[in-house]
Amino acid sequence: MPNELPLRKIIHVDMDAFYASVEELDNPSLKGKPLAVGGSEKRGVVSAANYEARKYGVRSAMSGYLAKKNCPRIVFVKPRFARYKEISQKIRSIFFDYTDLVEPLSLDEAYLDVTVNKKGNPSATLIAREIRQRIFDEVGITASAGISINKFIAKVASDINKPNGQKTVNPEEVIPFLETLEIRRFYGVGKVTAEKMYKLGIFTGKDLKEKSLAFLESTFGKSGAHYYHVVRGIHRSEVKPHRIPKSVGAERTFSENLSSEIFMLERLEHIAEELRRRLQKSKIAGKTVTLKIKYSDFTLQTRSKTLPYFVADKALILETAKELLYQEKLENSVRLLGISLSNLNTEKQKTDTKEDSVSVQLKFDF
């Protein structure tokens, strides 16, 4: 077939309410109760919520105050990131029993390429089921999985039968699956983009597929080409075992809102030191410094400056962050500050961005 895409067997494993599940694992008395990791009834931001809490509309990044308002019975627990990392490493070791092509996205999700695997098992579906069972037996928490011919579809599929389920999209099912998929369920289409698409009459993958490449590019910029190709089952990104970060950052949420820039400068120094440690540990430097400001009304603002040289030094990062802080008047009191570094010295130029028209081989056992 002309322009035939390389066929792979990709699994996306996504832990179910990971932080909350670990807390329930370590403290069984929390099971069955609406639970939020992070935040409090007065302040802070929810890092994760279990499914009982989600029934009340509690979500990550929601204020603790609003979470309590939505769900008066909610239980707040402090996050224990060292413990989550420990559990994540146990899960990752299970992945490596099947393939070395493992690309972690975060502590609680990863892509696995099992086209050729250590078990010699031709069925990615059975491998995903076995991995999920091992995670439950050996770790004690549940995971969901998506299985398909590329990372994009596997990622979307993993959310279909959550929690504690999996979804396989076979090669011959790819186009029908994408055409009937609600546009808000496309990975990478956020709330703002979805609303924009609704106004254009785009509600499903089929609606999206009817739009020309030129129309999508003129409407959505660079993302337009991405939407055009993924709805046709085209996504060439391979599973990358050593994922290169695009940015490194550190941030702090304060127990009390800050209105004095003097106090903010003091906090920025601590944040810059934490960022320096992370950069040093990863042996990374960058050119673009971004200051993140979250106000007391939860509006978010970022200010960036690109330097003519790579930096990793605390003093230079802090100096630039201070300059960005004074760049313009603050709109309100501040509840969070963050500093990140991007345009890193680890980034490589993309040499092959060409996307071919879709042509899928149908006889490929999943």
Automatic annotation (TrEMBL):
Matches recorded under PANTHER family: DNA POLYMERASE KAPPA, DNA REPAIR POLYMERASE UMUC / TRANSFERASE FAMILY MEMBER
Enzyme class: transferase
Superkingdom of source: Bacteria
PROSITE patterns tied to this protein: UMUC
Subunit structure: Monomer.
Cofactor(s) recorded in Swiss-Prot or TrEMBL: Mg(2+)
Known role: Poorly processive, error-prone DNA polymerase involved in untargeted mutagenesis. Copies undamaged DNA at stalled replication forks, which arise in vivo from mismatched or misaligned primer ends. These misaligned primers can be extended by PolIV. Exhibits no 3'-5' exonuclease (proofreading) activity. May be involved in translesional synthesis, in conjunction with the beta clamp from PolIII.
EC number(s) recorded for this UniProt protein: 2.7.7.7
Catalytic machinery residues: 109
Family annotation (InterPro entries): DNA/RNA_pol_sf, DNA_pol_Y-fam_lit_finger_sf, DNA_pol_Y-fam_little_finger, DNA_polymerase-Y, DNApol_IV, PolY_HhH_motif, Rev_trsase/Diguanyl_cyclase, UmuC
Protein name: DNA polymerase IV
Organism: Pelagihabitans pacificus
Reactions that this protein is recorded to catalyse: DNA(n) + a 2'-deoxyribonucleoside 5'-triphosphate = DNA(n+1) + diphosphate
Gene Ontology molecular function terms on file: damaged DNA binding; DNA-directed DNA polymerase activity; magnesium ion binding
Gene Ontology CC: one annotated term: cytosol
Pfam families listed in its UniProt record: IMS, IMS_C, IMS_HHH
Cell compartments where the protein resides: Cytoplasm
